[in-house]
Write a structure and sequence with these properties.
With 228 residues, the chain is an all-alpha fold. 73% of the residues lie in helices and 0% in strands.
Length: 228
């Protein structure tokens, strides 16, 4: 049985983590909204928000650990897909390809917009929930805006991946390990990108429907309480 002290420490840690994520994604959202999209390469969106996105998106890897150790009651499998799909976009595409591919894709502003709005609301919801003071409006936003933001975010991610496949097909040795070699091992960056894109076909509908189920569960119960 966990002691009260350990529970307090865990709660305090989660409050700090969620609040930092709110600040981080709010900054990313602000920079993306005020970015000069008509400017030259040196002032493009990715160069403007690159490091904040790297830091705060990779910090989300901690959420997999949170779910695994029971610090939060999240589904581990769903958490892994949600986190790793975005980390893949950041590390495996935006950082792995030249600017004129993934980072110049029209999918990037779409993904950043959907990610930042989603994360600001989600982390604020978690923070307020830990303080047992979640306003109904925040709950409604948390379980409603995903209806629009999820498809926008997925579209942005897939467009970035598609741009990266064009780079991989024209540069077959990029991030790949070809035969013959001493390890007798082959790795194709292009193939990995295609497989990841195809994985969205069965996985995205499951995540989307899961969120609709959560919406009915949360907002349905709240609506009932408000009506009584």
């Amino acid at each position: 049985m966990k002691s009260k002290k350990s529970n307090d420490v865990g709660t305090l840690y989660l409050k700090g983590y969620n609040l930092l994520q709110v600040f981080g994604w709010s900054y990313i959202f602000y920079k993306s909204m005020t970015n000069d999209y008509s400017s030259t390469l040196e002032a493009n969106l990715w160069q403007t928000i690159k490091w904040p996105v790297i830091v705060f998106q990779h910090a989300a890897l901690l959420e997999i650990i949170h779910a695994m150790v029971g610090l939060v009651k999240s589904n581990v499998a769903i958490t892994i897909f949600q986190v790793l799909s975005r980390v893949m976009v950041v590390s495996g595409i935006l950082l792995a390809t030249p600017y004129n591919y993934g980072a110049s894709s029209p999918g990037l502003p779409l993904a950043i917009f959907a990610w930042s709005v989603t994360e600001i609301i989600r982390y604020m919801f978690y923070f307020m929930n830990l303080n047992k003071a979640v306003p109904y409006l925040l709950t409604w936003l948390r379980y409603t805006l995903f209806i629009i933001l999820y498809p926008i975010g997925i579209t942005g991610e897939l467009l970035c991946m598609y741009a990266a496949t064009k780079y991989a097909s024209s540069h077959p040795d990029a991030w790949s390990y070809r035969l013959p070699n001493s390890w007798n091992f082959i790795f194709s960056y292009h193939l990995v990108l295609v497989l990841v894109m195809l994985s969205y076909i069965p996985l995205f509908p499951q995540l989307y429907l899961h969120m609709f189920g959560q919406r009915r569960k949360i907002l349905g119960s709240n609506a009932l309480k408000k009506a009584q």
